[in-house]
Amino acid sequence: MARVSAMAWGPVFAALLAAPLAEAAPPGALPEEAAPRDLAVVGLLVDLEKMVEVQQSLGWTIDRYEIDEIMSPALMSVCSATPETRAAALAALDRRILELGGPVEEAFRRRGGDLDEVADLLFATRVRALLAEAMRRARGAGDAPADCPFWLRPSPAFRGRETDAYRTTLNVEGGGIVVLEGADGRVLPGAGGSARLLLGRGIDERWTFLAGGEFGGTAQFEQTETKTRFPISFVAALPMVLRHHAGTWHYEGELASLAYFTQDDLSVSPGLRAGALLGVSSLRMRGVMPWAGLGIAVEHVLETHRRPAQWNFKGGARVGFDWDF
Questions:
Q1: First to last CA, the chain
Q2: CA-CA distance, 44 to 67, in Å (whole number)?
Q3: Of 102, 84, 3, 96, which Cα lies nearest the Cα of 44?
């Protein structure tokens, strides 16, 4: 089923940021009190959207039970936000639902009972229902105590829990590789693995920059007239990655400098790599956000006096852990 992309909230977020500026500051100035509150609204909405997307991917059935399934992480975000942030986020969702033609029940009937026709509206409605219920539980109702942990204090500096926004993270990644190595007119297939350790910095809710180190090795299949060999080659690299987040999905591009050598010849040849990856993540657990993805890359190993120029084409699966330390 189609969903509302996190990017669809752009006009809502823009309006939230613009309103305080128009009322309380001259053009170009950003009031100190307005900015944290507005960025907190953005962070809260992004968190809740990701939670609903994760739950929908498992098959959303009865609203009340599905909301209960994700209430714990929802409360961790809602309880971290101030009451003003919660109210502003709820108002933003109300406006979004009206823009999409809500309420969803009426839109469903108007569009001939086709659920796909109201998919975006249904998604926004579920996000609003999750927020409204989390707000009710956060403040308590009647004799019921508030569900927020006593040690979790609302803060206007809240930026979300399910993103890397404005924070530094440690990223541990690894996976399997299939490779084609081409040099001297020969192409050798192979397979292996690699691991990397990256430091990341969240630029905002949508973008993260990462850099660090990687080491990997692959064994090639080489058949000659007299024997079969499996020569092993190694790559050490310094990757730089720009990652774009859209709900549970992320897309990344990579550039890296690398050093290539083999078990038969330990002399190092420098090279360059360009790559891309499509990944999907889950919610954070104890500060760790697991993810998995598929990537491709092309490497060019420069010619040296010991080794000819070489092209490597790589692809494979990768898993990672984004740790908010």
A1: 35
A2: 16
A3: 84
Model confidence pLDDT, tens digit, residues 27-67:
333 333 334 448 999 999 999 999 999 999 999 999 999 99
Reported as type and span, the H/E element at residue 220 is strand 207-220
28 phi and psi angles, rounded to 5 deg: 90, -10
The structure tokens listed for 211 are 């850099």
**Residue 46, pLDDT score:** 96
- CA gap 159, 144 in Å, rounded: 28
Strand partners, 201: 168, 209
- Output the pLDDT for position 264: 87
| DSSP 8-state symbol, 276 | E
Q: Which amino acid is at 46?
A: V
The one-letter amino acid at 193: G
Nearest-angstrom CA–CA distance, 318 and 313: 16
Entry pTM: 0.82
**Tokens describing residue 221:** 């299949």
Helix, strand, coil abundance in the chain, percent, nearest 5: 35, 40, 30
Cis preceding-peptide flag for 149 (omega within 30 of 0):
no
The answer to whether the CB of 291 falls within 8 A of the CB of 282 is yes
What token pair was written down for 157? 């500096």
Separation between Cα atoms, residue 101 and residue 108, nearest integer Å? 10
